[in-house]
Design a protein that fits this description.
Phosphatase 2c, domain 1; 22% strand; six-stranded antiparallel beta sheet; 2 domains; 385 residues
């Protein structure tokens, strides 16, 4: 818990069933050079704790050393479009450079570590809220009782992500990159960044974040930043409803916020805004920046997660064993088919419509005939005995 620049914030993390705590967070109450700016970030690790802890420890330093951020600090009118472009660019480049510096560590060079992490970061200025997101962690904020998304999930099967993965020589199977990783953007995960002929933004998995910028209003209430442990069990409006409270129900506020901050196996940041930090002077040179609608978003809206009753067992974690018979998706719409293991461990082709194959329908008919033949032979042998 803490307070800075008129923001009251709380942080919570839960390790869950993993051997190590793989999540990390960063809070910078007052940024050097712009003390009325605050930074909040959550890093959701997978495959180990190194990537998340490294990113949390170094992200602010990489923002600070960006020439764009130096220029931003020197600008008098920080509400101008040019100033916001500088801040936006500095935060985006910081993600990529954290990834580059992580790749230079001995843990990664010696291949002792293969971890990665999603990253969601929000910088709050007196007039704007700037969010950088890479992965499927998420941030929402409430203004005037309305739920506003600050980020959208990066999933391998979204058209834009699928096209990049395919171009980099990868594929999507079971909604995962190369049949393994459930997110298409992350820091670390360098086994998916193995094309030296491609820039960082075009690798199968990239740290390049999407950016959202909002103009602050007098009606702003709070911001929630969390990894997917929250969003696996609640949707954006439900999350906001848990934090919202009617006037005069302080006990209810504390109870609901406690439930949110201690949700299943998650790390979360909750910030409440006050008038002390809000600048009533609206931006003069830049038009109001509004959130991107789901229909206009390049991903066509985020995926709809299944609903679960609070208190019910948590669904199988994303790192659980996937089904081996699901087809492989390609950006050109074809299916490569899949492979599954037989009763004695041998691999079987499931058929597909890749070049040289008989197509999904043909492969399915051939497989059905083979099964019928096998079944007939068993009946014959059984009858003969």
């Amino acid at each position: 818990m803490g307070e800075c620049n008129g923001l009251k914030y709380g942080v919570s993390g839960m390790q869950g069933w993993r051997v190590d705590m793989e999540d990390a967070h960063t809070v910078v109450e007052q940024i050097e050079g712009v003390p009325d700016h605050s930074l909040f970030a959550v890093f959701d690790g997978h495959g180990g704790q190194f990537a998340a802890k490294f990113a949390a420890a170094h992200v602010m330093a990489h923002i600070a050393k960006q020439p764009l951020f130096t220029s931003y600090k020197e600008v008098t009118d920080k509400t101008s479009a040019d100033a916001m472009d500088m801040l936006n660019g500095a935060m985006r480049l910081a993600f990529i450079e954290v990834d580059v510096s992580m790749a230079e560590t001995t843990e990664i060079k010696d291949r002792r570590d293969r971890s990665g992490c999603t990253a969601i970061m929000v910088m709050v200025t007196p007039t704007h809220i700037v969010c950088a997101n890479s992965g499927d962690s998420r941030s929402v904020y409430c203004t005037g009782g309305e739920t506003i998304p600050l980020s959208y999930d990066h999933k391998p099967f979204h058209a834009q992500e699928l096209q990049r993965i395919d171009k980099a020589g990868g594929y999507v199977s079971m909604k995962r990159v190369d049949g393994d990783l459930a997110v298409s953007r992350a820091l670390g995960d360098f086994q998916y960044k193995d094309r030296p002929d491609l820039p960082a933004e075009e690798q199968k998995v990239t740290a390049n974040p999407d950016m959202e910028i909002m103009v602050r209003k007098e009606t702003d209430e709070f911001i929630v930043i969390s990894c997917d442990g929250i969003w696996d069990v609640v949707e954006n409006p439900e999350c906001v409803a848990m934090v919202q409270v009617s006037e005069g129900r302080e006990g209810g506020r504390q109870e609901n916020e406690s439930k949110l901050l201690n949700a299943h196996y998650s790390s979360a940041l909750l910030m409440r805004t006050t008038q002390a930090h809000y600048s009533s002077t609206p931006p003069q040179t830049s038009p109001p920046l509004t959130p991107t609608s789901r229909a206009d978003h390049p991903f066509g809206g985020r995926e709809q997660r299944p609903s679960y009753q609070r208190g019910s067992p948590r669904p199988m974690p994303r790192e659980g064993f996937p089904r081996q018979h699901d087809n492989v998706h390609r950006s050109d719409g074809r299916s490569q088919g899949g492979r599954r293991r037989g009763r004695h461990g041998e691999e079987r082709d499931e058929g597909g419509c890749d070049e040289g194959g008989g197509g999904e329908e043909g492969g399915g008919e051939e497989l059905m005939r083979a099964r019928k033949t096998s079944s007939g032979e068993r009946e014959k042998h059984s009858g003969g005995s």
